[in-house]
Amino acid sequence: MDIDNRTLSSTSWLDRPITAYLPRVTVEMLVVGLILLLAVVSRFAIMGERVMSHDEVNHVVPSYDLFMGRGYRHDPVTHGPLQFHLLALSYFLFGDNDVSARIPATLFSIATVAAVMFLFRRYLGRAGSIIAGVLFLISPYMLFYGRYTRNEAFVALWGVLTLYAVFRYLDKGRASSLFLLAAVTSLHFTTKETVYIYTAQLLLFLAVIFLESVSRDKHARRSERNRFIIFTTIAIILILLSIGVAGYAASTVPKGEPAGDNQPAQPLPTENPGLLAGVPTWEVALILGGVVGALLSGLAAIFFLIRALGWNGIRRHRSFDLLILVGTLILPQLTAFPVNIVGWDPLDYTNTGMLRTGIFLVALVAISVAIGLWWRPRVWLLSAALFYTIFIVFYTTFFTNGRGFWTGIIGGLGYWLSQQEVQRGSQPLYYYALLQVPIYEYLGALGTLLALYFGIRHRRFTTLPGMDPARQPEDLALEGESEGEERLLVEPALSEGIQEPVLISDEPAYEDGEEAVPAVDEMDDPNPRRLPVLSMLLFWSVTALLAYSVAGEKMPWLTVHIALPLLLAAGWGIGFLVDRIPWKQVFNRRGLIALLLIPVFLTSAAAVLGGLLGTQPPFQGNTLEQLEATNNFLLGLVMLAATAGGIVWLLREFSAGNILRLVTVTFFALMAVLTARTAYFANYVNYDTALEYLVYAHAARGPKDILEQVEEISLRTTGGKDISVAYDADALYPYWWYFRDYPNKRWFTDNPTRDLRDSPVIIASEKNYGKLDSITKDNFVYTEYMRLWWPNQDYYNLNWERIAYAIGNREMRAAIFDIWLNRDYTAYSRITNNDTFKLNTWQPSSRFRMYIRKDVVAQIWNYGASPALPVVESTDPYLEKSIDLLPDQSFGIPGSEPGQFQRPRGLHVAADGTLYVADSGNHRVQHLNPDGSMINAWGTFADVAQGNAPGGSFNEPWDIAIGPDGSVYVSDTWNHRVQKFTAAGQFVTMWGYFGQGENPDAFWGPRGLAVDPASGNVYVMDTGNKRVVIFDADGNYIAQFGTAGMDPGQFDEPVGVALDAQGNVYVTDTWNQRIQVFQPDATGTNYFPLRNWEVNAWLGQSLDNKPFIAVDNDGNVFVNDPEGYRILQFDNNGVFVRAWGDYSAGPDGFGLASGVAVDNEGHVWASDAGNMRILRFTLPE
Hints:
By secondary structure, the protein is α+β, with helices and mostly antiparallel strands. Helices cover 43% and strands 15% of the residues. The strands form eleven sheets. Strands 3-7-8-6-4-5 form a six-stranded mixed β-sheet, sandwiched between helices. Strands 9-36-35-34-33 form a five-stranded mixed β-sheet, with no helix packed on it.
């Protein structure tokens, strides 16, 4: 093993040979080899079983295209290009499948474990580095995302190497460490935008230690140094104030109208562009003033720093070297910031946009080059060449995509800035601190707290490299330390049980040919130089938790970046603890017995504590359960006392401190076992269920079950993969990947058409069930599967009351503990009275169906003694008389401007030929000329359930009708009322409220409207209450008819209503799939079923599948088939006449056939709520 032992103790038990026959094979080699073997096994085990998740598909498919020779173009949405190239290489070497897609992440995860053990021995200590390797091995997050096709496994290695390069340079000062840092930083830039957070953390920490080292520099002029510190402090304060004001301003700026189901997000008119959009001018001035003030203070600080130390004095600080190198390399990568601030779009790749952005890019590159050449020309040029060679090669895909350089250096940060308000995941601020870390990375967190304790207790925030932290001198003074070379150390008296200290190597700081970077005061400083190892790990842990908690995107996988420094710090802390224990005294008969008793002591303590805090505390009564609880508590208490006494007696020669250390290290060993168990269940048991929290959306087993069936059906019917398989938008993930080599695959998004019947297999999600049912009818069989599920989300909206209840209530406390320990939701489900925590009823979740055509089922059926019966295919009874009919008038586009629509529903043609449209998604009525030009529009959004909703405001109006006097009636559906207006849109009156039919005007989602042209009476279809209610023109009640049911005169989801010339009332009885006709008696207050006929449509029960109806002067009946994308025409006796329409995004079909109306000239008007347009048809003779 390439392990440098020159500066480490040779008396450690780790150096003992495992056998006399192999004297060179030490215990350390065996342990490290075993850890690496376990890393390989744990990363590769059942790696291909888990379904390819949504995020993985976004990476594996473009990589497959690159592998197939179709090239690759960088898109910031899917992060950097490195992973795509590595995946393509893996496909080339191992074939394209789920396993090969995960091999790169797996190899990098194994390399991370190895890097921690081999590279950090000098800085964490021998025990610390091995323990850190174990922590990385068993970390649930490191293991899960080390087997997952995302960027986190790569970034984990880059993070470890970044820290190593920094420590190594501060330690040795070799230029090779700078080159390693440049290469790793470039690779991180080609991997993921987390590099901006990593480099910000690094620069901030380096700035702190640089300031600290300058403040102790004995060569500095005291007055200038003090002024430098003052101006630096002012600059930091101004920057922090500017950030605080900007954060406050961002939190108070209105975000505009959010996107909903029926309308896009509305942009916010702003005083200021770019990042400061929407911020008041005075706040902008305050922010910019703070930035300018910080800049001027920073320049003044630099001036006084130069006066205090001189150029040569500054450049001799190694932290300054690192600051300059990292700062100059990433400065051009920050171009998107100033571009965005001035109001330009950094994602504008037009010639003009690139020219604007290029101005800032050139300026920042010039600054970087100037500083780098002033600093150390040779080192900087080599570092920059290494950095940009890696960067350009991958972003341009080996010089085949020149635009990639631009999208890489500008687009990554530009896209990230544009997404900060998106709040992807919408997780709470405490998402990592109170959920992810306590559930999964608790061992790292506890170990970090232990390290913090030792750092404070033993002043070990800085340590000597090459010596175990616990074996370093207790009284080594910090005063006067600076960045110097290594020296010999002779330690004074040692703490009890600690082995003798190690002499620090006096090897030269630089190898032959390397550029020397001497330390400040290296000849005069009597103390050896110490490195801020623990300080940096603790700083990185805290800042990572803060940064990812406040970032716009909070996703589970980002926990990897929080766990990384926690695990390293925990390795340092637990290693320190291990090295403080006098193991020679432990490894005798009494010590070993005591060591065996300690786990019993800890489990007894846990049992006693569990008895006191559990659901059945002791000494509560005389029932059998209560007596059993008391007995268990007393037994645990006796065992606790006995084991405690036994341990103290057996270790009576030990100090209390050493006994406590032994108990503590045993506790951490048990926690390591528990962590390994957590990782095991998350990765190998619950990996395709919703029980775990370390995935945002779990892919269920269903997609692979369907894939296996499709493969078998295709093989048996086509001899290969030539089957025609169709899938919708939601099924694109993961079938974009799994059907990559199916030549006859078909992606129909969310717009199925009748020609899907030609596909033997159809895969559709829940939102398309209704549409598919109307197409497949009786010709297909289907099976439903779980597609996707999300973890329990009851952690949202925590407040002190909920926290106090969870802690104080015994049952809730025990239920949460069951979830934490075993992912068992049984008790929690019972307490919350929520039955959705069983896997078969889990919510939130998403299901989908696999439809198989019956003739294919008969062809491949394997079971039963008799042959399958021939399948009688159900045909569309309207297909024979369907015609191709194009509109002679079409207008409208999506939007909220005049003449634009958002899900238009009902419409009515007035006597003068003008058109009134219920523009449902825009919550308004539009009055239009026949050519689509605007006459008038009125209406605003208001929800009566949220407060005042005055006349003229709507909540999704669905239908509209015109009275004989020109009055306009609107069904304000989700305000549960009807409003009346003049022809010009002036509000007249309204009636109705939400109810369940207890009164005539107690409506539940009224939809269809009709007005009797003779009497002016208004017919309201009260859909939710399954009735028709009749009012006079002023809203006074006249009559009603209809109840829930299937018999004549009864309704199930009635929607449309219309009248013919004789006063008969036509109703679309949607879920009964029929049209009913009612005849009034002479009084007009009683209505009797006259006739009805079935309609072979309206199979789905979605919100959109709501048919309207119109009757012309000749008695022709027109109804829309919304999810069949067509209009059906019948005569007044129910005889089918014709149909027209199919799915299309153009005017030759419908996106969603919604409203229907006829004018006095016989034209049929239809609203298309899918394509946001109005169509007029002239029927053939």
